[in-house]
Amino acid sequence: ISLFIASLLLVISYCNADNHTIEEIDLFLEPAKEIIVVGAVVNMQSPGMVDLSQLEFTVTEESIAVENSMVDIILVGAEENQDYTSPKSWFDVGVGKSIDSKGFNEDTWHACCTDEAHEGGLCEHGDLGRLLIDPNKFLGRRIDMAIPPLGDYTFGIDLNFYDPLLIIEKRGNYILAFSNCHETGRAVSVNGTTEWISYITDEEIEQTTPFFALLTVIYLGLLSWFGYLMMKHSASRIRVEEWIWFTILLTFIDTAILTITAYTESRHIMWLTVVSMFISSSRTAITRCLLLFLVMGWGVTRAHLEKKTMMSVVALGVTVLATEFMQGLQDMERPEAVEENTLDGPENNDEDNSLVALILSVAQAVLWLWTLYSIISTIQELKEDGQLRKLKRFQYLLIIMILSITFNLIVTAFVILQLVADLAVDLAILPEIDALVFCVTLSAIAWLWKPNSNAREYAYVLELAGEDDDDLNDLELTENSGAIMTPTSEEVDDGKAVITKI
Hints:
- By secondary structure, the chain is α+β, with helices and mostly antiparallel strands.
- 47% of the residues lie in helices and 16% in strands.
- Strands 1, 3, 4, 9, 10 and 12 form a 6-stranded antiparallel sheet that branches. A 4-stranded antiparallel sheet has the order 2-11-5-8, with no helix packed on it. Strands 6-7 form a two-stranded antiparallel ribbon.
- Helix 6 packs antiparallel against helix 7 (307-332) and helix 7 (307-332) packs antiparallel against helix 8 (347-385).
- The longest helix is centred in the last third of the chain and has 39 residues, at 347-385.
- It starts with a helix and ends with a strand.
- Mean pLDDT is 75; it is low at 10-18, 334-349 and 475-502.
């Protein structure tokens, strides 16, 4: 049912993808020392990015320069209804400088590094022909491109030096502007499209907030119910129950933070975002470890796992937590300006991102392969021993895993189709779909491994042929129950047991 609902939501999102805006750019930039040309003005409803990879810059033989031309591209936030032609407006956002040390003076304000600006101490001689940026006020993004003095050229942004995806960190109005400041430079034509992508819009937040609020209530109920059963059957409590309860607790906190920040509009607070990211990464890592522990038979076919096995699984979990958290931080910290907020070469940043992504992928792959191998081995072992009721539990768990994997394959297919066939799929809805599937999965695990009075003895009980009961946790320990496993202290440490006749 959860897979069907998740798939339906994904299909619906195909028809509702409106989180991006396409802006056409068609400009002719004449060499001019004090002119900034506005290419696009867009209101971003949330953090996101603007993609400049489709822009083309063209120069022809008709345009010959004495020296290299320099075209500057800037992305900067602006107040609503701002006059983009006013020098004062540019000065307020850190574009251009004034020789007057007391503040803005239109008579001494310069947009570009000219001879006059150089003589006034506003820039160095090597910066002649470049846009002037005040690093103390400018909070935007900047790309500067050198234009060869001769020849016909049509080119895009050099990916070896610049990232064409300019990150937008908060909502508001943004200006994409161009300048060709070098008086003896070449005229440049700029054509193409820019794509402005919002990660999530205010409308989407309003639509999904009740959903996450409902999930928060569900997790609170699940946490309370499971905790109550743990206290009721504290005498027979096993450690795997504590892992399940802690996983539910982390998921509840993570979902509660999402709900609270959405209702209070505090989602742009940096420290809260980092805390939420760490809790989410911790939840992912602990869930991966918990699932592996369960399919190994912890609490069903064995009461304990070997210490070496536990340490190996925990090490993989810590690796997943650390790398996923680092990946989230790297996504937040896009390449910043090395000099005057200019985006510089992203090679080192990309290498770091690739290394972290590789380590994360390897750790997750090892955990998934180990999990699949373990559940198949456990099911085969229970079949051979004729443990039908225990077998049912793992068959249910296997079905849950298959549904989860199938859902991920469907999501992957939609992502591939979007890239290959340019389908307008609103991938912003994926967190809600994933949260729904995860909620059903965690609830099913909590039900299958719910605390009961026989939990501690359950791993040592051998089911006799012909036993049949709907309760997967109920195996009576009576004189007629056939045989039970009575563990010695050494065998408990190894997770093994011997059969003793009653």
